[in-house]
Each structure stands twice: as structure tokens, then as C-alpha cells.
Amino acid sequence: MKRVLTVAVAVVSAIAWAGKPERDKQKEVTPLVTEHAKSVKTACGCDVKLNVKWDSFKKADDMARIKEVAEAFATAAKAHCESDEDKKQFCANVKAVEINFAKDVGDVEYKEKEKTFVAHSNDSSYNGDHQFKPFLDKF
């Protein structure tokens, strides 16, 4: 219950400070990100949270490639989860993907302790599936 309340407060806070274009874009993108998370669960057998850090995106235009990051991760995960052993290792090593705005999109980061990927996007660039693959190949 405490976790749900914390997430709800964070989402409401981000929405409360955003303008109408940003709120509309968030409403458009959220279901797409959710669908990609579901496709990872179907392919790999475990829940991986795709967490968009909405407060890092200051304008609706900045949010243009969020769905591509979610799709890229889902593509990489589905390609990785071919065998039962691959699925087991994936689920043991991946719990979440954070999607943040970055003016200059660099490489994907992997926080081993948190078992979390940190990916970036902006209005024209995003981390692609080829950037997740080298990390997944280690599992």
C-alpha cells in the first residue's frame, strides 16, 4: 500500500506541474510503454518496470521518443529470452528500466546493484535495442 501511494504521489506531482501539452503527451505515451512492459513479461516470464521519469521531460516535444526507448528495450529483451535459462538469467538480473530525458543521448547504463537500466531520449534521439544487447549478453 505504501509503495502504491508513493507512486501515485509522484505521478500526480509530475502531472500537476506539467502544462496541457505535456499532460496530453503523457496520456498518449503511457499506454504504449505499458504494452511494451507486458510484451517483456510475456516473452521473458517476469515483470520489468518501465519507469518514465516524467519530471525530467520539460516539454511535450522532449517526450517524442519515449515510446521508442520502451520498444527498443522490449525488442532486445524478447531477442534475449529464447531459452528457459536465458529467461531465468534475465529475470534474475533485470528489474526495471528508467527512461530519462537527456539533451545528448549517450549509452545505456546498467546499475548492477539495483538491477536497473537507465536509458535516455529526447525529441530526436533515443537509446536503441543494440545498446541494451551487450548488457543482456552478459546474463
Question: Can you give me a brief rundown of this structure?
Answer:
Helix content is 53%, strand content 14%. It is α/β, with parallel strands linked by helices and 139 residues long.
Low-confidence stretches: 1-13
Overall tally of structural domains: 1
**Structural class by SSE content:** alpha/beta
Distance between the termini: 32 Å
Q: What is the number of strand segments?
A: 4
Report on the structure:
The chain has helices at 2-17, 20-44, 66-80, 84-93, 129-136; strands at residues 49-52, 96-101, 109-111, 116-121. The protein is an alpha/beta fold and 139 residues long. It has one domain. It has a four-stranded mixed sheet, covered by helices on one side. The radius of gyration is 15 Å and the shape is globular. Residues 1-13 have low confidence and may be disordered.
Q: Which key features would you list for this structure?
A:
alpha/beta, single chain, disordered N terminus, 14% strand, 5 helices, 139 residues
Protein topology:
Layout: H1 2-17, H2 20-44, E1 49-52, H3 66-80, H4 84-93, E2 96-101, E3 109-111, E4 116-121, H5 129-136
Parallel strand pairs: 1-2, 2-4
Antiparallel strand pairs: 3-4
